[in-house]
Amino acid sequence: MSYQSPFSVxxxxxxxxxxxxxxxxxxxxxRIWVAVARAQADAGLVADEQVSALVEHQDAIDIARAAxxxxxxxxxxxxxxxxxxxxxxxxxxxxxxxxxSADIKDNADVIRQRTALALILRELRTLLLNFSRQIEAHAGxxxxxxxxxxPAEPTTLGFxxxxxxxxxxxxxxxxxxxxxxxxxxxxxxxxxxxxxxxxLLEGDSDRFEAFEGQVMKALDLEPFAVTTQIYPxxxxxMLLSALAGLAASLHRFAFDLRLMQSPGFSTAxxxxxxxxxxxxxxxxxxxxxxxxxxxxxxRTVQMAAGVAWENAASNLLERTLDDSxxxxxxxxxxxxxxxxxxxxxxxxxxxxxVDEAGIEMxxxxxxxxxxxxxxLTELVRAGADRQxxxxxxxxxxxxxWEALAQERPNPLVERLTGDTxxxxxxxxxxxxxxxxxxxxxxxxxxxxxxxxxxxxxRLQVGAHPEA
Length: 467
Known about the structure:
Blueprint lengths: L5 H4 L4 H6 L2 H21 L5 H9 L6 H11 L2 H12 L13 H37 L4 E6 L2 E7 H25 L13 H6 L4 H15 L14 H28 L6 E2 L19 H25 L10 H27 L2 E2 L1 H15 L1 H10 L4 H20 L6 H6 L2 H4 L4 H7 L9 H15 L9
Antiparallel strand pairs: 1-2, 3-4
Helix pairs in contact: 3-4, 3-7, 3-10, 5-6, 7-8, 7-13, 7-20, 8-11, 8-20, 11-12, 11-13, 12-13, 15-16
């Protein structure tokens, strides 16, 4: 058996795989040929009966015959053209009249990119709505916050999830705009001057503009004002950069989830099926393989954006072909990877397992450390010197941290409530209350609830038709 891409069977949804299949590509090529022939008929250049014959055979894709011809002539589009022409008999003689390959291929590429973005936006909408439900459910669930991967101040799980959702919301907006802004090559010929087509239309530029406009309207695609043999490859870079940004946001969530699942953080984890195997060698393992898959695939999308930059920067004069081979995999696989990552993330968020016991254990162990910001604020409000109090809290904290390192009980609360310098400003009961982590989450619950509501409002049915 010959090589088969993992994206053919392992990654990506059936809809996304079908979109980037050979059959789908050839159907769009034929759709463009028919649209051009129909416009030529309206311009009086070909007969309606010829167009009818093309339409009759438009969906008769024969990949085996096309592959045989391509092996002989070395040109995939011409091979498909020959198959289509053979099927249409005499009418096949008018196919591709006045065109170059990129008039078909480039417009077809953008049509598929727009459809792929619609699929991505649909899946991203599901992911964001899943986030909104979890954010709301855990808006007030106090957890340890971390900076430098060290306990910092308390936050809430809903607020942490809000950060991931906010990143993804920004890319939902960006990709929705990108879909609207995608432009096709138009029907312009070998170097974009439309010389051959203009000759067919007896040099009448107004007739050409009407002709091209009719074709592009049939394709529901706006063309660039200026193209060479191809549409500007910088558009690919812009598109893949947006997908790479989406991948970065998904990676951040997945990487954090991997941390939260590890014993040192014990906050939340991805679901693990009853029959799921974590390791072939270590039966106890419960590895975060879905989150790791997201992190792995995200790197391929980031690299795709870099290759697209090279393609855009190195496409010399009216065009060179050194982008062609990599684009065959670059764009489809970037979409397939994003599709797989989004759907995986949606499942992770929907079925997120919160480690209640782990959270309580971490708060019991470190909560008093992380809530000291409120204590310091209140001491200064009561008249204490801020710098002096900061130093006293620091000394008590370091001594208490050492006790924890030696697996002794955390003495921080007792040390602080017994410090006469602090007691000159606050009563012991007040100090204890200020060291409760649940009281130190600030605006986190409110902001999390607001983010959940914002997501639902933004993504309500009918509010975003491009998705």
